[in-house]
Automatic annotation (TrEMBL):
Family assignment from sequence similarity: Belongs to the threonine aldolase family.
Protein name per its UniProtKB record: L-threonine aldolase
SUPFAM superfamilies: PLP-dependent transferases
Biological process terms in GO annotation: glycine biosynthetic process; L-threonine catabolic process
Organism, as annotated: Actinoplanes regularis
PANTHER family: L-THREONINE ALDOLASE, L-THREONINE ALDOLASE-RELATED
Needed cofactors: pyridoxal 5'-phosphate
UniProt key word Repeat: no
One Gene Ontology term, aspect cellular component: cytosol
Limits of the Aromatic amino acid beta-eliminating lyase/threonine aldolase domain: 34-282
Amino acid sequence: MLGCDQMLSGARPVTVREKLAELSETADAGLMPDVYGDGPVTVLEKRTAELLGTEAAVFFPTGTMAQQVAIRYGAELTGRRAVALHPLGHQEVHERRAYADLTGLRAVHPTAAPRNPTAAEIMALAEPVGTVVLELPLRDAGFVLPTWPELADACTAARAVGARAHLDGARLWESTPYLGRGLAEIAGLADSTYVSFYKTLGGLSGAALAGTTALAAYARNWRHRYGGQLYQQWPAVLSALTGLDRQLPKIPDYVRHARTVAAALAELPGAVVFPRPPHTNQFRLWLPHPAARLNEAALALAEQEKIWFVAGWRDTETPGQAMTEVVVHAPALEWTARDVVDAGLRLLDRIQG
């Protein structure tokens, strides 16, 4: 099965051999494997900095590590041990609160509303913070984005209270259509930006932290201290470069088609889609059935009809109501709205049959 982010797809996962063949096809023939961060790592860092319009970028094996460094930098630069985080943010929900346990910082929550904090909420923080983190999109609120004016005002407010603005941009690549701005203009609002190379670009792993040359120098030191100075990382780096070449140009198509898919899924009996229309190529879907039965039906559909529809269902606080996350990637572009509805009905037939 795929991970917790489920892709509407009729395609099977690629094998290890196929993935290695893809990397060999796209690699520069003269590019040598890296040794402790040179070679292809340097190529990827330079390209990322150019895309985001920053002075520099530093490759990290994980986004969790990259974000720890960004938050630590803000604390040391400002002398403030608090960081403004959303309670649904990645650091709180998916990183085991490493900012607190490893860095000794504490969180201040500007808002509990299912969205990023507003400028007014940042200005009203009860205590000084070193960094204000804005997650684009806020995944655990339903992949929701602020508007461009809201984002710009929030970053301005962060600086007004003496903090750094940091973008948790793991899914920044797919945020550009909704925000109506390019990557460099979005990253230009903040003091630092983290991006992921595997979530949408299809890389094996890895992330980058982009910002000033001073941040980059600090990040390289702390990457080493955190254990991120690996001897060789060229497979992950090559897959990231392949994603930038092949997937990044297609992302606007994914976002556009996600609106078609979401509207079609909303036609299923009892279905709820949020947000509608989706802000990115990802959104949430609820159906009035237990998660176990939906997951069983999804697996049966895959085995019997070779269609990987949507799975990863989990039960909600409402009995008999389950939720999943839908991610629209390349295979879904071949699906019409009618195809989506038909597959959804066949899924439901397996539950009711």
